[in-house]
Amino acid sequence: MADGKPSYDYSPAHRAIEIAAITCLFALVAAGAWRALGVAEGLQYGWIAAAVFTGYVLADFCSGFVHWMADRYGTEETPLVGQNYVKPFREHHSDPKGMTYHDFVETNGNNSIVTVPMMASAWLIGVDTTLGLFLFTALVSLAFWVFLTNQFHKWAHQDDVPAVIAALQRARLVLDVEHHNVHHTAPHDKYYCITSGWLNPPLDKIQFWLRTEQLIEKITGVAAYQDPKFLKS
Length: 233
Ligand SMILES: [Zn+2]
Ligand SMILES: [Zn+2]
Description:
By secondary structure, this protein is an all-alpha fold. The protein has 9 helices and no strands.
């Protein structure tokens, strides 16, 4: 907030929804931990840890999938997703630092709106069996890490981050700056995953995104979007 004006440039109503969603999300994480740890016993604590890890890996894939879709399909005019996903992801290539000026709510609000329903739906899963406990915890974990993905992405572009975050980046436990720079090298067609980035090397090795695009084009005739600046002549 500067000069009494809000630091964000979107509607106060959307801002209120973002704050409510972030609050709900933290409440659901606390409730989820309470539910899982309340019924676990013996070896099930190990399964809970495995589920949290699984959610983290899955979140990396989901981040890559959503990012890839926004970069490669649709336009800024596409209903529902054009303005909220396609536009910011594509603008991010030409203005990577832009997102670093967003505060916590603006950075994480939209992702929390998407992940709160996903996390709430986890309560449909019973936790009276080890499998149910694993699936419940994995879904809550997935939603939590998807929520934090934009924060990790923002840290990868910030000039200064807290020492503990820099250490996590160096240890490659969250998205690392140099690693993410691979995606920011034209033509921006690889390394889409932006939570931990762990899945980028193996997916790149099997050319996962390119092959998926070729398959989609073969089946539907729809070619992936390519920024005209990087079209090969
Ligand atoms: Zn991109
Ligand atoms: Zn980026």
